[in-house]
Specification:
Blueprint: H1 2-20, E1 23-24, E2 37-44, E3 51-57, E4 63-65, H2 71-80, H3 84-89, H4 91-99, H5 102-108, E5 114-118, H6 124-131, E6 137-141, H7 144-152, E7 156-159, H8 162-166, E8 178-183, H9 192-203, E9 208-214, H10 219-224, E10 238-239, H11 242-251, E11 254-262, H12 267-277, H13 288-301, E12 311-318
Parallel strand pairs: 5-6, 5-8, 6-7, 8-9
Antiparallel strand pairs: 1-2, 2-3, 3-4, 4-10, 9-12, 11-12
């Protein structure tokens, strides 16, 4: 117990020291690789009692955790606290949001396209794509329960990481009609270089990419400060702006075709409230009463989609 407390104290003072520094030397921006990293702010976490320091790149605008958790700690959070059940509770809202991207998808992916949904969850996006007429659909999901649910609904879903799926002997024939969907996945990726190297190699020239991710340059991020609901430290390791996602994609050999913003989902408002009130979930199990609250919140706040700018939608093609 004492060792755990000492480790938490060290983690706190490490974050505090980072935030007292005007410029963090010898830290490369994970996006543009420059060393012009300045202190941004410290944020608390609804998943732990630790303090996390965020740095901001003065060149590309990317924001990222300066003192990220190790793989074991992050794995423990995903395994015990991270709330998949809350996302499942607003599944209808998520599906409604994705349906509003039909025109965007149709412009870049013909009906015979192979679409790979990395981090497909319980298959809400796959359901929409199937209803649109797409049949060559593949999902990848690390959560066993979610991936099993997708398979029960008739989808081809691999349980594990994208890198593991690439090693299963799957047909990786490159063609210009392959599309990868990353719906709120990129902010969770620890090593952006390794991930994009694999994505680029798989897609090949002409392959398409659809990204949905939090917009750290949003109006509410500036207004709410450290209580902004999508900091989500430490599970969100990266926080993209329009400039930084454009910089990353260009560096990885992609041509950005479309960028626009829209409002966050309803869970964003609950996350913001939890941060302000310092509420921390003790487990990922949610009572029936809390599920009712989550669904009522969804019914009210889902229309924020038409007002806010917290979510970035990006499409890009591999050059």
């Amino acid at each position: 117990m004492r060792n755990a407390e000492e480790q938490e104290i060290r983690h706190y003072y490490q974050a505090s020291w980072l935030l007292r520094s005007a410029v963090i030397l010898d830290i490369n921006c994970p996006v543009c690789k420059q060393k012009n990293i300045e202190r941004f702010r410290n944020v608390s976490s609804i998943y732990s009692n630790k303090l996390y320091a965020l740095g901001s790149c003065e060149d590309c605008g990317h924001i990222f955790i300066l003192n990220p958790p190790d793989k074991d700690e992050l794995g423990s959070i995903y395994g015990t606290i991270y709330n998949y059940q809350a996302h499942l509770a607003i599944g209808n809202e998520k599906q409604w949001r994705f349906r509003r991207l039909k025109d965007v998808i149709r412009k870049i992916a013909p009906l015979d396209a192979r679409i790979l949904d990395i981090g497909c969850g319980y298959g809400r996006n796959l359901n929409v794509l199937k209803a649109m007429g797409y049949s060559n659909l593949i999902g990848i999901e690390i959560n066993a329960k979610a991936s099993e649910s997708c398979r029960e609904n008739g989808f081809d879903v691999f349980m594990g990481e994208f890198s593991e799926w690439l090693n299963t002997g799957i047909d990786k024939t490159k063609n210009r009609h392959t599309c990868i969907l990353l719906s709120h996945i990129l902010e969770h990726i620890r090593d952006l270089d390794d991930f994009f190297n694999k994505v680029s190699d798989f897609l090949g020239s002409g392959g398409q990419l659809i990204l949905m991710l939090p917009n750290a340059g949003s109006v509410t991020a500036r207004i709410l400060g450290r209580h902004w609901g999508w900091w989500q430290s430490p599970v969100h390791l990266h926080h993209f702006t329009i400039k930084s996602i454009n910089t990353l994609l260009a560096a990885k050999g992609f041509k950005v075709n479309l960028v626009f913003t829209r409002g966050a989902d309803s869970l964003f408002f609950l996350s913001t409230l939890f941060s302000i009130l310092r509420i921390k979930p003790k487990s990922r199990m949610i009572s029936e009463f809390k599920l009712i609250i989550i669904r009522l919140n969804s019914a009210i706040f889902k229309y924020w989609l038409f007002i806010g700018d917290e979510e970035l939608i990006v499409t890009a093609s591999k050059i």
